[in-house]
Amino acid sequence: MMEWLTQHVLEKYNFWIAMLIIIIGLTATVVKENLLKKLIGLSIFQTAMFLWYVSLGDVGRNILTTWGLKTGTPPILWEQAAEKGYIYVNPLPNVLMLTGIVVSAATTAVALAIVIRIYQKYGTIEEDEIIEKEKEFEREGVM
Prior knowledge:
By secondary structure, the chain is mainly α. The chain contains 6 helices and no strands. The protein is elongated, with a radius of gyration of 22 Å. The mean pLDDT is 82.
């Protein structure tokens, strides 16, 4: 039992932490009524996805093979390192996440600009109040 716990739970602590942070961010995005809090939750969610994806690059311990997944090999690996069982990191997930971080920052900036524009039009960033004001505008014929 302890061996199973060590192999399937404790060795994958980074995955469990990433999943916990993903759940926190997704919950904040869905549950909160304040648009700014939703954006903060979305940012937390994106950051947790980066953590999870970069964790997949940890090839040396063969974490993924315990789940039945194949692991890639880096383009340069000398035989002595492989024989000694060195832990190495696949650089591809790190490179891909750099692009993801740039896209995330741009998306967050655009979303903040939209929230500012919503505040200028409705005077609030609370979702239920915006919906009520939008219904008022429709009744009055204001665009």
